[in-house]
Each structure stands twice: as C-alpha cells, then as structure tokens.
Fold each of these.
Amino acid sequence: MKNKMTLRKKRENIAGFFFSLPCIIGFIMFAAIPMMVSLGLSFTDYNVINHSTFVGLDNYSKLFNGDDPYFYKSLKVTIYYVALSVPTSIIFSFSIAMLLNRDIKGKGIFRTLFYLPSIVPTVAISAIWLWVLNPDFGLANSILKSIGLSPSRWLTSEATVIPTLVFINLWTTGSTMVIFLAGMQDVPRQLIEAVEIDGGGFRTKLFHVIVPMMTPTIFYNVVMGFISGFQVFAQSYIMTSGGPNNSSLFYVFYLYREAFQFMRMGSACSIAWVLFIIIMIFTAILFKLQNKWVYYGGE
Amino acid sequence: MGKAKKILNKIIVYILVIFGGIACLIPLLWMFRSSLMNSVEIFMTPPKVFPSKVLWSNFTEVFELYPFLTYYKNSIILVVLIVFGTVITSSLCAYGLARIKWVGRNIVFACIMGSMMLPFAVTLIPTFIMFRKIGFTDSIIPLIVPAWLGGGAFYIFLLRQFFMTIPRDYDEAAYIDGAGHLKIYMKIILPLTKPAMAVVGVFSFLNTWNDFLGPLVYLNSESKYTVALGLQLFTGVYRSEWNLMMAASCLVVIPVIIVFIIGQRYFLEGLTMSGVKG
C-alpha cells in the first residue's frame, strides 16, 4: 500500500512537470533570461553591430545627469499623463457603471455600446481621432463652433496634446466599466436597503455603502491603470510621433526610439530598468496604502 | 421621496445613458460615414452628416493602393496560429498547476504570477536580440513562439482559477477507473471548461489582431505586414485623404466588431473573471 502511494506521488510529480513544461520554458525564455540579459546589457554600450564593452553605470548616469534631455522630458510627459488619465478614467467608468447598475431597460445594449470602443485596434482608434480632432475639418471643432465655443488645436498644440490623449483614453475605458459593473453586483442589497430605511439619500448610499464595498475593485483598476499608463506607446507613435516639440514623447516611445531607431540597445535597457523600478516603487506604494482605504469584506 | 421626483430621476438617468451611449458610437459612425464620401464633400464646413452619394469605390481604391488582402491573409494566419497555441498550452499548464499536486507547483505558479508584473519594455530588447541572433527577425516566428509556450501569464491564471472550481471527485473517480492525466484533461476538464477556453480564445484573438508593437518590431518587409501595420503604413502616406484613410480603418475595425458580436458573452465574462476574482 505504502509503495503504491509513493509510486503515485512519483507519477504525479512527473505528470505535473510535463503539463506545466510549456509555461516553464516560456517563463525561462521570455521572462527570466531576458530580464537578466536586459540588466546585464544596461551596463554595456551594445548596439547590435559592434561587440559590446562594459561601461559600468555610464548609461544610468547619462540619464540622470541630464546629458540626454529627452529622459526627463519623457518622464515628465508620462507622469503628467498617468496623473490625469488614472483618476479621470476611474471616475468616468465608475459613474457609467453606477448609471448602468440601475434598473433600466436595455441595460445589455448600453453596456455593449460603452464597451465597444475598447476593442477597437489602437491604430484604428488613432486614425479615427486624428480625423475627428482635425483642427481644420474635424467633427469636434465643428461641434464646438456650432455651440459658440472656440475651436481647439487638440493634438497639434503642446498645451493640449496630453489632455487630448487623456480624453481619447476615456473613450476606451469600457473594460474598466464592465469590471466595476460586475463588482457592483456583489454589493449587499440589504446594506443599501438599510440606508434607504434610515432615510439616507443617494449620497449616503454612494459614499457610505457602494464606494467602501467597491474599494477592492477600485484598487485593482487603479493598479492596472498605473501600470498600463506608464507603458503607453502606440497612440503617440501613430498620432503625434511624440510631438509637437516632444510634448507627447512618452517614456516607452523614448525607449523604442533609443532601441530601434538609434540601435542603442545598452542605453535602451537602462531606460527599461529605470521604468521597471519606477513601476515597482509605485505599485509598492499603492499596495502599502491599500490597508488605509481598501476594505476586504470578511477579513 | 415623492413619486414625481422618482420619475424625474429615472428620466435623467435615461437621458445620460442614451446620450453617453451615442457619444461612444459617434466616432465609429463618423469613420463609416467618412469612408463613403468623395474627397470634396468630406472637407465641407459645416460638415455634412450623410454623404450625398454613397461611394463604395473608396474601399476598392484602398485595396488597389495597398495590398490589404495580403495584410488580411497575414493577420489571419497569425491569429490562427496564436489562438491555437495559446488555448492549447495555457490550458495544459493551467491543468498542471490546478489539478496535479507536484513538488514544483507553487514555485512555478509564483514565477508565472510574478512575470505578470514585468513590463514588456524590459523583456522586449533581449528577446529581439535573441531572435535576431538566431535569424528569425522579419518573420512571424517571434510572435508565435510565446503563444505555444504558455501564451501569457494572464491566460494561465484565468484558466487555473477556473479549473480549481471543478470538484476533485471527478478526477479521483476517473483515476480509479485507470485514466491518466491526459485523459482526465481531455475527457473531463476540457468539456467542462469550454466557456473559459472561449474567453481565452476571444481575448487572444483580440490581442493578436490589435497588436501593434510586436509586428512593428519584428516584421520589416511590407509583404509580411499585418492589418494593423498596414493601416499604419497607409495612414502615414495618405494623411490628407481622409475618406480613403477612414475606409482603410473600417477594414481593420469591422472584423473585430464581427467577432465581438459573435463572442460578446465571452468578452464580458472574461473581464468579470479577471477583475472580480483577481
């Protein structure tokens, strides 16, 4: 009997290993090794063609002492974008989810309508908004003019390019809205009813029941928003090429340019690692702060 | 609260929802409307809402100017290879991590979860250099290989969570009947988790069809371009011919919308699973 058990255990070990083998190889090939290689390359001047030489911390010091003005510029642009896009998209999609969470007819259709833009390919999103926001012939400025407002330069002026990209991002937050809506189904009915019996209004219901109960979902969306916001790339690559005057030079765009246009792979790896560390610090702070405001029911 | 106020509230909610829903749709409708206009009408101010004559020839012109048929073919090949790879290997791994008790299970799972936090920017360059060294750049191989090796931490996690909810007694009963793990996986787990597989399938379709950075980095020859890259190329050249550009955009968007309409349920289910349980 005992022998049989150990035999089964052995077979389980072998089976488990072989079932998981694809992802083990995948992890080693596409996460573990590249991560180490990237760290190693960040201390070299590798440029694909020549042999690389070890340059110590040169790549990093070049970034931080301002030799490359684009580093701080792209960092500023990206932080500005994240600071605007995370709160706006959370509040916007939460509000829509609140609206759709009511007892309304055609809920499914509206949910589909709000979700639809988020599946559109970024390249197409970019083309559509380039046209809608065209300063001379675009729909947006025609609407502004027809209601008596002055037209905007949208993506073509330094001052408005980031707010415009934040606005376009709002259009694609349908998936966040769906996640909120799903979370709202788990808010206990009796808590809301209790507030109603006590004569509490909408505000009490929202800020004392729904928002507190939803904090885990809000937290999840904030973390995801931060991580993806820091890695925005395609929008600015296609719509603005980082311009005007580098005012939409996002961090990953800057990295892409270093790596694939200038072929400075060593330097690009150091840029990637700085990003990695920034994201880690931000997520660590978010996780640290979470016990101040995130409520996990029953724990 | 008075009854009148309740009704008023309801009306306000409906107005907001209807207005918002239409606002979400307008850019897409505007794209479609512009794709059917001639190059004079499209620049009129104030803009005309409907084209005076529907011009389907914009679409044929796009096909004549750029080989969008080739781009379609390339994208479809890529999607098929990636979706199959992802569904097969991520479910195998998820089975190994959810249904088999083995020594390295927890470590492997922790590593895979950890890799979700790794920004793609960090791994992109070494992976590119590796594929370049073995001579696979300007081919779809670098885009496909990862799909056949687990397909991404997110999918493995999603399926593992799903597999965990199936009662263990099923496996035990099958085991006593002499079934091995491969048989249990094929005959018990897969039939029970078809919806979860569909979720992985539709999301991996969407991510492949929409992917921009991957093809941009790995594909150089225009004959190998995907639809998304083709549109980007087109946008760069025909920046002032908005009717053609919008027709090209329609070509990229329409397949996604069709798949979305067919598999809508799975899109919404997948998001719900990731957000609420994750």
Note: The mean pLDDT of chain B is 88.
Amino acid sequence: MGATNRIVDLNVNGDRRIAGVPTHYTLLETLRYVLGLTGSKQGCDKGDCGACTVLVDGVATLSCIMPVWEAEGAEVVTVEGLARESGPHPVQDEFDLNGAAQCGFCTPGILCSAVGLLERNPAPSREEIKEALSGNLCRCTGYTKIYNAVEAAAERIRTGSADGAGRR
Amino acid sequence: MLRLPPHEYHRPRSLDEAVELLHRFGDDAMVIAGGTDLIPNMKHRLFEPAHLVGLKGIGELRGIRREGGALAIGAAETLASVARHPEVRGRFAALAAAAGHVAGPQLRNAGTIGGNLCLDTRCTYYNQTEFWRRALGYCLKKDGTVCHVTKVGKKCVAAHSADTPPALIAFGARVEMRSPSGTRSVPVEDFFVPDGIRNNQRGPGETITRILIPLSFVSGADGAPGGADVDAAAGGDADGAVNRIRGSPNGDEELHLRSGYSKLRQRASIDFPLLTVAVAAWVDPGGRMQRLRGVVTALGARPRELTGWDEIAEGEALDDDVIDALAERARKQCRPLDNIIVDPEWRRAMVPVYVKRALIQLRDEPPS
C-alpha cells in the first residue's frame, strides 16, 4: 500500500496550520518536515529518549510516537512556542543563566517537560522536578544545573519577578 | 530515523463505531489507544496493519467509578490518571504504584491501562529493527523459525513485561471485552495464555472496554463483583478498604485490603521491568491475613501467580519468619530465561528480595 496524503488541521503554537501529510506521519514528522518546526528533536524516534517532547493540551507528550491525527482538536506547543512577547519563557531564561544546556539536543524536550510541570504544579519540590524530567535523557549528564534552572524559574514565576536582569 | 509503515488512521467517536470498523477491516486493522507500545513496534516492522482504529476519543472508554461491588476503570484511562486517582491510591495502592512506575512520565501520559494489559511480549531478539532481525535470520516470534533464547524450543518465551497485570490479578480483577458478538469478561489471570507469540486470549476484532476490581472481600470471593451482603465501608473513603462481614463466624469482623508492589529495572525510569511483584491480602485488626495473593512477571510469557502461599500464610500475621518463608517459596518457583538482556541468575536471585520488599509494604506501609 502506497502512502496516501490527507489534510490535517492543527493548532500549533497558537497558529492554525493546515497541511497535506502522508497518513502514516507522526506529529513529530509533521512538525519537522511539513511545518518546518525543527526545534523538537528526533532522537531515538521510538519513545525512549524524550527529545521530541511537546505539550499537547498542556501535557508533556512524545510527538515521535503520536499519530498526527490524534493532535487534531488539541493545542500543540513546541519549544518554538514557549517564549512570550516580553522575551524568553522564565524556564528558557533560567536555562541560560544556569548553564543548563550543554550540547543542547535534549533541551527542547526538557523545556517542554519543565513548562508542563510548572503549569500544573507552580511550586514543585526537587523530587517532583526530577520525577517530571525522568523521561528526558541528557547524555551530557547536566542534570544538576537543569534541576537548578527549573527551581529558579518556578521561584521567578511565583514571585512575579520579570527577568533575571542583574544576574548576567 | 524510524518510519511508520503506510496505513490509514481512523478516529471513531463511539464504541459501536470502533467495533464496526474493526469488523469491517478484519485482520488488516489493529486498535490503538496510547500507541506507546504499538507505534515503536510498527516502526520495527513487527506489525504492519493497513488500518489503525484509535480509541482515545471514545468517551465510553473513559472514567473511573464505582459500579455494583467493583471499581470500574475505563480501558482508555491513561496510566497517569490511574496512578493519581484518589480511590485507586487509597484502596488499591499496589495498582496505583504499578501504574505510576510504568516507563516514564510522558509514556504514562499517553499509555492506557487497557493497552498495558495488551502490551506485546518482549525479547532481546524481537524488539529490534527489521535490519537487525534480518541479520540474524529473524526469530520464532516474528518471520523466523528459530528461538535464539532456547535454541531448540518451538515455543516462544518472550517475556510479559507489563506492570499493572500482577496488581490487577492480586486484587482479583476482571477484564471486560467487546466484540461484534457481544460483551464478555474474564479474570485477568485467565486473560493471559502461556504463549510468547500472542500471550492473551483477546480475539480478532475484540477490544478491552473496562477493568473491574472487586471492592469487598465477599464480592471478590467468586470473582464476580457485586456481593450484596457486604457493607462496603460507607462510601468514598479513600484511606483504606474496610469491610464488615455480617454473619461471619467471628461476628462482625473488619477486614482491610492491603497491598505491596516492587519493581526491578536497570534505571528507575523509562525501562521495562526485569521483575515486577505485586501482593495483596485482606487483613484483620490483629494483622492476620486472608486470601494473600502474590504475582510476579517479566519472567515468562504471562504473569505467574505464586503458589503454596496459603499453607504458609492463611490466617497468619505477616511476621519476618512468614515473609522469609513466602520469599523462599517464590524463589523456588521462578526460573528466569535469557530472554531479556540481563543475567537470568541475577534476576532469579532478586526474586526473594523483591517479594520481601512488596510484603513489607503490605505489612508496614502502602507503596507510593
């Protein structure tokens, strides 16, 4: 059976995106190869490593094992959609300030997992942060700084402090 | 980069529509809920269905609620929602712990309890890419004739690797299935068959609809939820299952359902189990146990209920000597094979260790 194309109707980072895609495409393949959103990474491509993590209706989701049709009717947010008009998302800013990214390949997925955590739990404990990020592999093993960055971002969101200015 | 084989994806809005689609496409169709097992397997060309029938949008397959004498869990409830549900946590702690320890967080957000029951068996020589399997001449489970584990065997020994079935069996749960010919339910232990190629009795076109876990000692006795002569503790208490059995020989006797769960794996996240243990028993105020059940899995093609425990533990309190005797009885029954890429001797040595951990949870504090 050859590949058939169909029209998919998505909401990605607040934009309605309508495109023809092969019926066997995953959400990740659609994001990267149809919509040009290459921030979400294709790592193991079978649901182990977490590099493809995006938010689907606010829930951390592995886009490499999600048929694209299941994303119809949902709000998809990728790493490209985390920043606010005023600047980077506090989690992104704290990753920068804490040196929480090394090679950076796992970072888009970890940012999405972390933002998903903070949206449902604004004051997570260190253990809850570790648990929430336990499905994201970082092979540079920079986890300590990653946890520090998420803690700092949670604090900043709670206290409403605008940015990390002065700490740079 | 792993591509999916070409297929059509269908999103039925009702169970009737899903059953009709499965019937229409027959062997060309497979059901998909969370897809966390099926999609990687399709990428490895272990399955190449022309049609996928998605269950996640079907409201009838959602919800966790009391029905009759049972807690009914919709098959498409995610493992994450089962793990955090207050009544599951309070009453069936081992199930909440099992669901909460499957794989990693994103996989629990997508994977469902029905899907966990249908998880394909796993083996070093099976869960590989088509390229890898072809290089070895394939295997007995898929496309080949030789079992690379037993070398001579004509029976597939791929390991049942799901975490929730041991807990469900220990709690006496039943699984309800729907096909064009109607609805049926079987005890979870009978759902599985000892064949690694296809280890459950779900028929073609059949799909799991609900899991039913008995709430009381009596309703669990014959496996059929709905015991009428039991005062299943004044509704909705989340901190323990209490039953007052009227007319029992000892008068009004309170039995609490207690449980434990332990899991061996290489990393504390993402990995499949190398060994999973669930235990459950009804315990009276003096700590004496009735109907203690222990179930292990990740060893053979289906979960194994530990036998001989009644003569050690029925009516006894769970002291250290009883725990040691139960753990030793478990070790004698479990002989892991070389089907997972971890030394089977070590996995066997871990059986009594993990059985003890689960029993200590049952006695001292519920798993979390």
Note: Residues 223-240 of chain B have pLDDT under 50 and may be disordered.
